[in-house]
Specification:
Blueprint: E1 3-9, E2 14-20, E3 25-29, H1 36-48, E4 52-57, H2 63-66, H3 69-76, E5 80-82, H4 87-91, H5 93-99, E6 112-113, E7 119-122, E8 125-131, E9 140-144, E10 149-153, E11 156-157, E12 160-161, H6 171-182, E13 190-193, E14 199-200, H7 201-207
Parallel strand pairs: 3-4, 4-5, 5-6, 10-13
Antiparallel strand pairs: 1-2, 2-3, 7-8, 8-9, 9-10, 11-12, 13-14
This protein binds zinc ion.
């Protein structure tokens, strides 16, 4: 069974997720730590809980979600896994870092590409990959059926949705992704977003102004 630990990192207040199981194996999703203080907060949590990260995944590659890619790849000796359609986003992240004047240790390139037919298996637990473009070209979400939760990246937020004005973004594509890939799940499904609070599919079905 997954335990979900979140960290709020960097000036964009991005949610970094660490999923771990009873065997102390872990999955890192969207590492956003960008300075020594945040790197230490993250690595201290891992060492004090004696965790061994096994996977490093990006929901998408906007700068706030990849600031800690290089740190985690080197510290935990992990390959990076993303959807191939977000490779251009990753390759342009340094441009965004310059625009926002934020220090960025350039992320190495991924060595594994994920598609919607893949899943990530950690011990007995499975994360299915959902292809949810629209916020960026290659945005993906991770769904755990057994525990009814989604890691949605910047696709769906509490009473909001991701912005679509950045390169690769498209409003109608995003709405379509949410309606076809996320909203069919049961109301109790918890949604862990890339920014802000945890919400649920039921809450968003009822209150999200973009989905009514
Ligand atoms: Zn984003």
């Amino acid at each position: 069974m997954f335990t979900i630990q979140s960290f709020c990192f960097n000036p964009f207040q991005e949610n970094t997720y660490l999923l771990y199981n009873e065997n102390k194996e872990a999955i890192i999703i969207d590492p956003g730590m960008y300075n020594a203080y945040e790197q230490k907060e993250f690595s201290d949590f891992i060492s004090s809980n004696q965790l061994t990260p096994q996977f490093l995944l990006n929901t998408h590659c906007h700068i706030d979600h990849v600031l800690g890619n290089k740190y985690c790849m080197e510290k935990y000796n992990l390959p990076l896994q993303i959807h191939k359609d977000d490779l251009p986003t990753l390759q342009n992240a340094n441009v965004a870092a310059t625009i926002y004047s934020i220090p960025y240790d350039k992320s190495p390139e991924p060595s594994i590409f994920l598609t919607e037919n893949d899943s990530i298996t950690l011990g007995l637990d499975i994360l299915s990959i959902l292809y949810t473009p629209g916020h960026s070209s290659g945005s993906i979400s991770f769904y755990c059926e057994d525990q009814n939760f989604i890691i949605s990246g910047d696709v769906l937020f509490e009473q909001s949705i991701g912005r679509t004005d950045l390169p690769g973004g498209d409003f109608q594509t995003l709405i379509n992704s949410i309606k076809t890939q996320l909203m069919p799940f049961p109301d109790i499904t918890q949604v862990h977003s890339g920014h802000g609070n945890v919400t649920s599919i039921g809450n968003e079905r009822q209150f999200n102004p973009y989905l009514t």
